Every structure is written in structure tokens, then in C-alpha cells.
Please model this.
Amino acid sequence: MALFPFPVPEGLLDLLRDFTVAVVQNKPDDLERYAAKYFSELAASMEGVETGSVECSKTRSLLEFDESMYVGYV
Model:
């Protein structure tokens, strides 16, 4: 049986991994506020607007990632 019974959008696992690493490194007191700022800065950086230092897997990977850890095969 597959781990995910529905299609997982390409890039979602990388996006969530990068966010999780940033949370662990920065240990924010207010996770929701941190998430809003993180994803706002990420979106702005992908549009070419300089607002912060958020990077994503499309430009740099913080950790080696093996997608097979998360995706089950039938």
C-alpha cells in the first residue's frame, strides 16, 4: 500500500523539509508568525524581490534528501 493515497505535488517534500530545518535552527517562539514570514520571504525571493535571506531547495539544499524515505511504493 502506498504511503500517500493521493498525488503529492512535486517540490512539496523539499519545501517542507527546508522549512522544518529553518524552524529547528532558529527555534522561533511564535511558529505561526515565523511561518508567515518565512513563506512570504520565500515567495518574494522567487519573484526577485529582496526581503530576507530565505533560500529553498531550488537554489540550495540544506540536507541530503532521499524522497524514498517519505514515498511508499506498492
User: Anything to note?
Assistant: Confidence is low (pLDDT under 50) at residues 59-74.
